[in-house]
Design a protein that fits this description.
Layout: H1 13-27, H2 34-50, H3 55-60, H4 71-77, H5 96-101, E1 103-105, E2 111-114, E3 117-123, E4 137-142, E5 147-152, E6 160-163, E7 170-177, E8 180-186
Parallel strand pairs: 1-6
Antiparallel strand pairs: 2-3, 3-8, 4-5, 5-6, 7-8
């Protein structure tokens, strides 16, 4: 085995590379001889050929890879299969009665009507999902604009619904301060 340094431009560069790799593996305590390493290199070259990768184009940086292969295509190339999972059907029963019973009537003492405006005060301090500042809260009108729904960011359903007792046109403004919701609605 040669103790010379590897020179990639030499005529016997492949042999120099194999000798250097063999020495490196032996220095690491791995008993690999040059014939075993040559066999491994031929196997790698065969794998590249099977995948359609040209080493000369790779050296020039002109390799195109199809990264759109699916996981099943990848498994086929590697000689295996991924297990196919079947979808599970789940039935969910929704009860309109249960949803309607979640609606709380607004206390008339908390409502003030002036011309075409309705001022409303609601205590939200006991709703655990709403912090004192009202961050992440969204308020919408539902059920023909007669129900007020409090939505919290990250929750798919309203945390609380309030029956306004009348139909309103829209929400003009609202704010939450220390868990108290103050709003002005147009009626």
């Amino acid at each position: 085995m040669s103790e010379k340094k590897f020179t990639p431009s030499g005529d016997d560069w492949e042999e120099q590379l194999i000798e250097q790799l063999t020495k490196m593996f032996q220095d690491m305590g791995m008993p690999i001889d040059t014939n075993t390493l040559r066999t491994m290199m031929k196997q790698i070259q065969s794998q590249f050929d099977d995948m359609g990768i040209d080493p000369e184009k790779m050296a020039e940086g002109k390799v195109e890879l199809n990264l759109e292969a699916t996981m099943n295509d990848l498994a086929k190339m590697m000689g295996g299969n991924f297990p196919q999972k079947k979808p599970v059907e789940v039935e969910i029963e929704t009860s309109e009665e249960a949803e309607e019973s979640d609606i709380v009537a607004v206390n008339e003492d908390d409502v003030y009507i002036n011309d075409d405006s309705m001022m409303l005060t609601i205590d939200c301090s006991r709703i655990s999902d709403i912090d004192d500042s009202g961050n992440g809260v969204e308020i919408t009108l539902t059920s023909d604009n007669s129900v007020l729904s409090l939505m919290v960011e990250g929750r798919p359903r309203p945390v609380k619904k309030y029956d306004l007792g009348r139909v309103v046109e829209n929400i003009e403004e609202w704010s939450i301060n220390n868990g108290i919701l103050d709003m002005t609605l147009k009626i």
